[in-house]
Amino acid sequence: MSPKITTELLKQLRQVMKNPRYVQEPVQAYIVPSGDAHQSEYIAPCDCRRAFISGFDGSAGTAIVTEQHAAMWTDGRYFLQAAHQMDSNWTLMKMGLKDTPTQEDWLVSVLPEGSKVGVDPFIIPADQWKRMSKALRSAGHDLVPVKENLIDTIWTDCPQRPCKPLITLDLSYTGVSWRDKIVALRSKMAERKVMWFVVTALDEVAWLFNLRGSDVEYNPVFFAYAIIGMNTIRLFIDGDRMMDPAVREHLQLDSTLEPEFKIQVMPYGSILSELQAVGASLSPKEKVWLSDKASYALTEAVPKAYRYLTPYTPICIAKAVKNAAETEGMRRAHIKDAVALCELFNWLEKEVPKGTVTEILAADKAEEFRSQQKDFVELSFATISSTGPNGAIIHYKPVPETNRTLSVNEIYLLDSGAQYKDGTTDVTRTMHFGTPSAYEKECFTYVLKGHIAVSAAIFPNGTKGHLLDSFARSALWDCGLDYLHGTGHGVGSFLNVHEGPCGISYKTFADEPLEAGMIVSDEPGYYEDGSFGIRIENVVLVIPAETKYNFKNRGSLTFEPLTLVPIQTKMIDVNLLTEKECNWVNEYHQKCREVVGAELERQGRHEALRWLLRETEPLARVQ
Amino acid sequence: MSPKITTELLKQLRQVMKNPRYVQEPVQAYIVPSGDAHQSEYIAPCDCRRAFISGFDGSAGTAIVTEQHAAMWTDGRYFLQAAHQMDSNWTLMKMGLKDTPTQEDWLVSVLPEGSKVGVDPFIIPADQWKRMSKALRSAGHDLVPVKENLIDTIWTDCPQRPCKPLITLDLSYTGVSWRDKIVALRSKMAERKVMWFVVTALDEVAWLFNLRGSDVEYNPVFFAYAIIGMNTIRLFIDGDRMMDPAVREHLQLDSTLEPEFKIQVMPYGSILSELQAVGASLSPKEKVWLSDKASYALTEAVPKAYRYLTPYTPICIAKAVKNAAETEGMRRAHIKDAVALCELFNWLEKEVPKGTVTEILAADKAEEFRSQQKDFVELSFATISSTGPNGAIIHYKPVPETNRTLSVNEIYLLDSGAQYKDGTTDVTRTMHFGTPSAYEKECFTYVLKGHIAVSAAIFPNGTKGHLLDSFARSALWDCGLDYLHGTGHGVGSFLNVHEGPCGISYKTFADEPLEAGMIVSDEPGYYEDGSFGIRIENVVLVIPAETKYNFKNRGSLTFEPLTLVPIQTKMIDVNLLTEKECNWVNEYHQKCREVVGAELERQGRHEALRWLLRETEPLARVQ
User: Nearest-CA distance from A95 to chain B in Å?
Assistant: First the structure.
């Protein structure tokens, strides 16, 4: 990996920072955040502006360029990568270390008095703008919105914004029509006495209209906004996608409809002026509902007195609770995904001893097996295929420079998933193709105990997921081991593999309470730097539980695993399991046998079926 | 309980709300919060202004009086009590119910346009002022500080502010001299580049100067403020307390000292003008450190640009980590407290069957036994002595109207504690003096399992206490039971029985990480409305733990119980305990026997000793 040479680019950027064609007044600093205009976690190539200007292409990082300096803030996952990818023009700001200044403090320390700091108001979320603007103002500087993105002005070979065809999802996938979703949304709006709702997150637009796209890799979304009024629907979207007869039919664009369900299609770029027009037309007490993470540009378009901001939108909350059709789809997707992984692990077991399987080949093979399954669309994230020490790098993705060959002497960790038209999968299994050491088995078994503790947990309706996080750690903690990531995240239904508003993480507090129908991952791990990584991940569905006293009718909840892939029994030290845990493993494997076994049989995949049957033999616990 | 007649009082209050002698302009509403000028949890009689004006004397509630209305906001614990204590002039606003308006929303709905809402700026914390002021301003009203407290102007027989003698604590109790505490504080101030620190919480003043008082019942504190500069110490305190030679000697008021340790004693009431003078004298970049919960009056005294506000002050954090002298003192206090409770329970066992022991008598007897112990000062909170259905009222305090007689047919719950000169105690035991039902034993045993799960938990250094809260619930949850309070709170060392910044509660997130030397309570419970209450509470010390892998040298922590009072084995269903839990109980009881037994022996309390020995017989688990 050699660093990107950025001398010329930075020179150009510093010129446009003073060029009256782009800025009303020269800006002495320019901020280049990671995100896109929708605060997406995964972004399109045309939005990778921070990577373009600096060379550093990790998933998190903020660049700030002043007349004299160029600095990059990123977190511990990326210190090494950023240092490798950036040239000497850049200073790496290691977030989380005690002596690293915040962006605000650094700006104040390097800027001449009365400076202007520019940023694209569409890329910076309103809450971040507020914080930074306040800090700069109190030091005598100004944060100013620069309408034209200055990186785009110098990015001559910037890829085009993707504008790929849409997929329409009928009721058998979504369970609820877009019309009924609009009705439900309007009733939430009426409850809060809000007249308008602005849909800014890409997965929320996709969910609301029962459409999917492929504008962003791994996420079946498309670039669009919507403004929902009590009597109007405006969809902001580009390209000829609205010419597709299937889409026109799906959205009933050519039908005679009650006016309140008539969708007005408008250019993607006209959202700001349309929202400003809405904002200007408001009567007193009419409010506009926005996510508090919406961009500064859109938030500012609504006069302050008319804004109604919440951390989670009603769409985000409704989307999280999967209906029967979605749940069934998720089940089907996970069975197909399990078939693919049985094929893969059976293949790996034969091939790994030959010494010819690399991490990249294993990842490719996983994709190949998945792509043979019905309604496969794409992967749901970049496959983490890691062996030995690479497994200890939590966000590892194999590249030729790091690509390691799988062997019978090392633990192999595979964290992978796919988008099927009926659901999204995300599963991690940790395998040994030779003989694991006692220590490796010990650590694996603690992780398994944590996984079971969450999966089998019973808790009252209304419990927030973060309260379950410690259950996953208790067995590890007892021996002085831990892992430095959350235990689970929300999972979309043929949508983003990471979604709010629920999860299982000690890092969050403002998650929404778990309720039946929500889907999260359960993925504790243990990582030994330089040696190995262990993680056991299932996607699990929140379901009602039966308890003796049922929390005085408050209701009881627990989880049902949707993922049905064997957990390698060879890695388990059975003596460390309680009887209850042992039974959990055996019942889980029995279900894998029955459900996935039947599908393997149906697909005529007899060798993989034999592998499944062998891998799901019951554990025998020595009393 | 008959309600207080407030017609005349409200008339008087409405008059002073317009009286130019007290208000610059008439105020259309006046807010009467619960607290005192130090945001204390427990307050002195002279600060019970809300109780005076309304009749409602629960621990939490805010009154607002307008020209037409009088309304009281309180939470679920007090709906019944408030309704009983207030006359028909008052509207009860039940907080936590969906249709109850917030104070701000209610004010906006009842006030005429452009109203002024008054409040005593010393009583309202700065963060609350900010929130309310913003909401009122956006609706066209103004929140205004009213210097003279309007309740005080009509409270003709208001008790005097207490001004009781001080207790000086020498090094054998405190472990660190006040001088060294000042040195440590100044070093924290230097770290944060802060020139001044304002001590506003009463327990922080007491801790800093190694002084105690008795101005507030149950809390050994005294009314005072302090302003600590890098070279100056100002102590604001009233009365002739500074004439006491022991206090003068302790504070070295008459010694020749380095100027930076010379304490300037000033009148309590001069804090505002002194702080204003400090605020006016600041050079750029000189900051003043205040708690963000300090009063609006004091916060406003420092110009905004010079304020440095944090949720936890350096004193709060230092105070939470007990040193060796404090820990030893706490141990001694808990042994004495256990002696008193062995005496009490032995006495109850004999007396309850006679049918002559009421809740109040039992509470009095507990105090009597405690007061026989060395260095006893007072109780640390109002004793919760409750039998049968009263036990299900979590914050119950027996009064003649509710006073129930203990019997051999009902569960008895005693939550009590004391202030000794060497430490503060807080212990809950749940007993049955006859034969408990299978259901009562079942519930008790789940609570015990939760208690043990926390007490025996092992966790990495730096873990926040709220992450342990679910451990206390897991056994209850498995059967569909829960309790609606947090699991633990910080405990002071001969100071407030509730103190920050750590605790074990699902309700908080911003608690400080646990570290060795911190002291918290571990008190899960279960409450069956109308039938019984169960709670098992020990005060526990955070200590280093030995683990196999020690979190890669991050360090392991666990708890050591300081409370050493038998847990009634008659209430335990041994078959529901694991072997590990059974061993925990037996080891705990063994320690009670050894440590408390020796002290009972030393004090010649042979009957109580026999009771202790009988109650600590090992459990035998049927395999």
Answer: 19
Fold that domain A6-153 belongs to in CATH: Creatine Amidinohydrolase; Chain A, domain 1 (3.40.350)
Among the listed residues A536, A431, A528, the one whose alpha carbon sits nearest the alpha carbon of residue A482:
A528
**B280 CB near a chain A CB, below 8 Å?**
no
In our burial notation (b when 16+ CB lie closer than 10 A, e otherwise), range B237-271 reads: bbbebeeeeebeebbebeeeeeeebebebbebeeb
Domain map (residue ranges) of chain A = 6-153, 167-319, 321-615
Look up the pTM and report it.
Answer: 0.94
A502: its two tokens: 């629920």
Minimal C-alpha gap between B275 and chain A (Å): 23
A167-319: CATH topology is Creatine Amidinohydrolase; Chain A, domain 1 (3.40.350)
Interface test with B, best of A309, A439, A461, A479 (most B CBs within 10 A): A479
Beta bridge partners of A432: A411
Regarding the domain with residue range B321-615, which homologous superfamily does it belong to in the CATH classification?
Creatinase/methionine aminopeptidase superfamily (3.90.230.10)
Sign of the four-CA dihedral B45, B48, B53, B56: negative
pLDDT tens-digit map of B283-315: 888 899 999 999 999 999 999 989 999 999 999
In angstroms, what separates the C-alpha of A391 from chain B's closest C-alpha? 18
| CB within 8 Å: B482 and A460 | yes
Give the ipTM: 0.93
For residue B89, the SS3 value is: coil
CA distance B175 to A57: 54
Angle of helix B438-455 versus helix B579-591 axis, rounded to 10: 80
Structure tokens at B130: 């900010």
Q: What gap in Å lies between CA A360 and CA A356, rounded to an integer?
A: 11
The pairing of strands B29-32 and B116-119 is: parallel
Answer with the residue of higher pLDDT: A520 or A256: A520
Distance CA(A363)–CA(A403), nearest Å, equals: 11
Query: B506: which chain A residues are within 8 Å (Cβ-Cβ)?
Result: 464, 467
C-alpha R_g of chain B: 26
Same fold: A6-153 with A167-319: yes
**Ranges under pLDDT 70 in chain B:** 1, 622-623
In the DSSP assignment, the letter for residue B47 is G
pLDDT of res. A509: 82
| CB < 8 Å to B509, chain A | 509
Minimal CA separation from B149 to chain A, in Å? 33
Q: How many CB atoms lie within 10 A of CB B513?
A: 16
User: How many A×B Cβ pairs under 8 Å?
Assistant: 69
> Do the strands A116-119 and A142-145 form a parallel or antiparallel pair, or are they unpaired?
parallel
- Spell out which residues of chain A touch residue B473, defining contact as CB-CB under 8 Å: 459
Which residue do the tokens 């804090």 mark? B271
Q: What are B21's two structure tokens? A: 């002698």
Beta-carbon separation of B467 and A469 below 8 A: yes
